[in-house]
């Protein structure tokens, strides 16, 4: 009986430490491992700073700028400011991953991100994301709060 309890405790402990348990519903591939679009950057290393503004007005939501060009291997520090009147977020990923995650967000609209590739901001707040783009391609950044992406809040990252 005591042995079974011990084994059960080990299984529960392993489950609690697993990435799936620690980050439920987040399948963006943006853990601390390299993904299709790169990996979390090192804040102690130099990075090119790119400022992105989130805006909402007259039913339109947007990122400014909404198109970015980055060199393969480059580390970038995104300094993001929410100039809108609503909460917004920025999620870096592939278009397919972000569209899939948007479906999950529609089911759980209060889901908040604690991922290195995402940041949610209240109105008039700022935050940053440090990211290293290790692979060439076309990638997406979106606000996945329900209705925001559909209202125009998305952009494209071209890594050459």
TrEMBL record:
Keywords linked to the UniProt accession: Copper, Metal-binding, Signal
Stretches that traverse the bilayer: none
Domain Blue (type 1) copper: 53-160
Gene3D superfamilies: Cupredoxins - blue copper proteins
CDD domains: Cupredoxin_like_2 (cd04211)
Annotated segments matching region Disordered: 25-45
Start-end of Basic and acidic residues biased regions: 29-45
InterPro entries according to UniProt: BlueCu_1, Cu-binding_ET, Cupredoxin
SUPFAM superfamilies: Cupredoxins
Signal peptide range: 1-22
Pfam families: Copper-bind
Name of the protein: Cupredoxin-like copper-binding protein
Species classification: Bacteria, Pseudomonadati, Pseudomonadota, Alphaproteobacteria, Hyphomicrobiales
């Amino acid at each position: 009986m005591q042995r079974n309890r011990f084994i059960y405790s080990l299984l529960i402990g392993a489950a609690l430490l697993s990435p799936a348990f620690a980050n439920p519903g987040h399948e963006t591939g943006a853990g601390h491992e390299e993904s299709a679009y790169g990996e979390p950057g090192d804040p102690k290393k130099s990075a090119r700073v790119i400022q992105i503004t989130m805006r909402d007005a007259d039913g339109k939501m947007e990122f400014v700028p909404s198109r970015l060009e980055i060199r393969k291997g480059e580390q970038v520090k995104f300094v993001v400011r929410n100039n809108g009147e609503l909460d917004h977020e920025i999620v870096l990923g592939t278009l397919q991953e972000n569209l899939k995650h948007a479906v999950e967000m529609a089911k759980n609209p209060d889901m908040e991100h604690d991922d290195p590739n995402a940041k949610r901001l209240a109105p008039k707040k700022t935050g940053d994301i440090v990211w290293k783009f290790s692979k060439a391609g076309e990638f997406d950044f979106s606000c996945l709060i329900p209705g925001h992406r559909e209202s125009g809040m998305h952009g494209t990252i071209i890594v050459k």
